[in-house]
Amino acid sequence: MTHPTKPTAPLLSVRGLTKDFQVGTVFSRRRVRAVNDVSFDLPAGRITALVGESGSGKSTIARCLARLEQPTSGEVLLDGEDVLRTQRRRASRAYRSKVQMVFQDPFGSLNPVHRIEHFLTRALVLHGHSATHEALCELLTTVGLTEDMLQSYPHELSGGQRQRVAIARALAVEPSLILADEPTSMLDVSVRVGVLNLMRRLRDERDIAMLYITHDLGSARYLADTTMVMFAGELVEGGDALAVMDAPAHPYTRLLLSAVPDPERAGSYDPVERARLREAILNPTSCPYGDDGTCSRTEPVRHIVGEASEARWGSPRPEAGGGQPHWVRCHLRAPASDIARRVLKATDRTDGEATDATEKAETTAA
Ligand SMILES: Nc1ncnc2c1ncn2[C@@H]1O[C@H](COP(=O)(O)OP(=O)(O)OP(=O)(O)O)[C@@H](O)[C@H]1O
Q1: Where is 32: in which H helix or E strand?
Q2: Which of 18, 36, 56 to mutate to test the pocket of ligand 1 (most atoms within 8 A of CB)?
Q3: Whose alpha carbon is nearest atom 2 of ligand 1?
Q4: Mean pLDDT of the chain
Q5: Is residue 344 within 8 Å of residue 54, measured between CB atoms?
Q6: CATH of 10-365 among 3.40.50.300, 3.20.20.190, 3.40.630.30, 3.40.190.10
Q7: What separation in Å is there between the alpha carbon of 34 and the centre of ligand 1?
Q8: What is the CB < 6 Å shell around ligand 1?
Q9: What is the distance between the alpha carbons of residues 34 and 5, in angstroms, rounded to a whole number?
Q10: CA distance linking residue 137 with residue 120, whole number of Å
């Protein structure tokens, strides 16, 4: 595996993370591999997007890092310490005060019987900070809410405001890393950008690192410094967010991007090209990367396809250091799990329906 050439010091490193779930009854031996041998670094003060379709394993990674799930194997290194080994049963308070999670559903994550003041006070006190009125107000102001909301119940706030409260609660412990699992997917489009801008501001002003999990490629392009693409429990591509989105190197990334409507190119949705990409993913016959344009099935697993670029928001924040090089998993590595076939079959059906609809529309127009 090739590592970035110009890295910022990783705040958190993941090595060979694998997670199997038992499925069926308690006596069942059937297991599903949700995450398979995933490795990446999360640099301090940068936003890393983890994109992929539903079921690709994104939330499982976040839950493993938040220590809500116990990984089957692998290492999670925070400041160089493998916390899965040193804190086997549960995460220490020190770990939880550095790594916080914000969930997709802002309503579900706030107990409806408590006022906003309660959530913020509890987070401050649990992590050894004093919950003065000033501290509570500062938290609310940081996330763009007002002091009077301290006395509100969650149901009295909008979805966007509730998500800001969830972020304020995470901020109360002064974390170095926020794991944000689809934090805007349940919000109206009109308030999404406000939450994304808040995340960007927290990175810029407080140097907080974020793992931003989403299936919305547009928001990943808008927000992230670095993007990683996940397919069927494995990472297939990563690097500078703009490079990955503008020059995707893996057929799966291309397949994902080809489903994003492009208003500048009418008819850009091309089921034939998508079928070709699916075939290239499941039954690869060649890989265009490697030293001489060919490569073997063994090593390296990752090919570098682009130079490390300067951090996207680097000019006002030179201390953030350089970006990561753009890498792609060798095309000859077919995905390991059956989930891959299931996911691609689903996109196959969608393409069939899209083609039928287009043909119908064309016939009607004629
Ligand atoms: N507790 C569990 N028990 C059994 N299987 C699980 C469990 N949690 C997740 N899985 C399986 O693991 C795989 C990955 O799920 P995960 O929720 O991580 O995907 P995801 O990419 O986050 O999807 P989504 O965007 O829909 O949340 C799926 O096949 C899912 O069915």
Answers
A1: strand 31-43
A2: 56
A3: 21
A4: 84
A5: no
A6: 3.40.50.300
A7: 6
A8: 21, 23, 32, 34, 52, 54-60, 215, 339
A9: 30
A10: 10
Amino acid at 341: R
Please name the amino acid found at residue 294. Answer: T
Pocket test of ligand 1: the residue of 32, 213, 216 to mutate, having most ligand atoms within 8 Å of its CB, is 32
Q: Is the ipTM of this complex over 0.90?
A: yes
CA of 21 to the centre of ligand 1 (A): 9
In 10 A of CB 43, how many CB atoms? 24
**For the chain, domain boundaries:** 10-365
Q: What is the pTM of this model?
A: 0.88
What are 249-281's pLDDT values in tens digits? 999 999 999 888 777 666 667 888 888 998 989
pLDDT by residue (tens digit) across 289-338? Answer: 866 666 766 666 888 887 765 444 433 333 333 467 899 998 888 887 77
